[in-house]
Amino acid sequence: MRQNFREFVHAIHGRDPFPWQERAAEALCTGTAIDAICVPTGTGKTSMLDAAIFAMAHGRDWRRIVYTVDRRLVVDSVSAHAQRIADALAGNDSPAVRAVAAVIGNRLRVVRLRGGVPLDDEWALHPEEPAILVSTVDQAGSRLLFRGYGVSPKQAPIHAALVGHRALHLVDEAHLSRAYVQTLRSCREHGAAISLIEMTATPSISTDAVLTLDEADRANPLLAQRLSAVKRARLIDTTGKKLAATLTAQAIALRAGGAAIVGVVVNTVARARDVYTALAKEGDAVLLTGRVRPYERDRLVETLLPRICAGRAESAATPLYVVATQTIEVGADLDFDGLVTECALYV
Fold it and tell me: Would you give the distance in Å from CA 128 to the centre of its chain?
């Protein structure tokens, strides 16, 4: 089974799964309980989608995979991952992929549920078709509780049934969405036919059914490189009045030291604007805050992401200052050559 899953993932993504991902797929296929995935950031939690689809073809009774993460940018990147799976089922000639498509069908719907984009509810008209729903907490949670955003009162029970019956819920960064996880558990206790897996480095439950890294993972060359990467940090004392100037000076120093893409993450919109204004005088700079209108943010991210995403082409690493609030801090797959960040407390 692990060999088939390895071939399945390689045919879709051009790489082999990590050992923990193979163990997760095997557990899902055999019905072995997994309450939580407790692995560090950067170890591929998104590939639980591949494991879940593979398990659907090996007897699991899900029809919908609901991947929830409370970050719009991450919703978009996970949706792209899901779409690669859907495209492969529709046309990849790999025997491993065709074997999965033969069971679940070659049409896998990928639905993106988040604010700021048009909502397409056609998937709700085809409950018989397998689907991956990638959603923010408010979109998935409101549907589960018969109060779906943009859903009419007559359609609300349909959406509630679709996310509350024969559904696997994968909750990424679950430690940031405790109330949502508690709601899912409560719904299950009251009869909702759902499976739930928390994905977090700090699970809220104490159980033996928590999947973590083992020696095989630590021996994997790529994982070992990520887990042992050196991340040097230096603490600089300053005051509130001098903080914006200090952040600016440190970003400029990193640029002078050879860092092409320099990130500056601060705690308030006002400070982000002050730092951005100063750095824009020094070179190419961009400002990202939660107050950017959705349309403008999407257009900005569309042009910016190739320059700051992990695994970008070397030619894309032209000098840039990225000034942001914590709107980009959790979950986004970004890669800075240097980072200046404000601590939570200062005097």
Answer: 26
Q: Which two tokens stand for residue 40?
A: 């560090």
Report the Cα 176 to chain-centroid distance in Å: 13
d(Cα 82, Cα 71) in Å, to the nearest integer?
16
- The model carries a pTM of 0.86
Mean pLDDT for each consecutive 10-residue tract of the chain (347 residues)?
A: 91 96 96 92 92 96 94 84 97 94 94 84 92 96 94 94 96 92 94 94 78 95 91 86 94 94 92 96 88 70 77 73 80 81 69
At a CB cut-off of 8 Å and minimum separation 6, what does 254 contact? 262, 337, 338, 340
R_g (Cα) of the chain, nearest Å? 22
One-character DSSP codes across 11-41: HHHSSPPPHHHHHHHHHHHHT----EE---T
Pairing of strands 165-172, 64-68: parallel
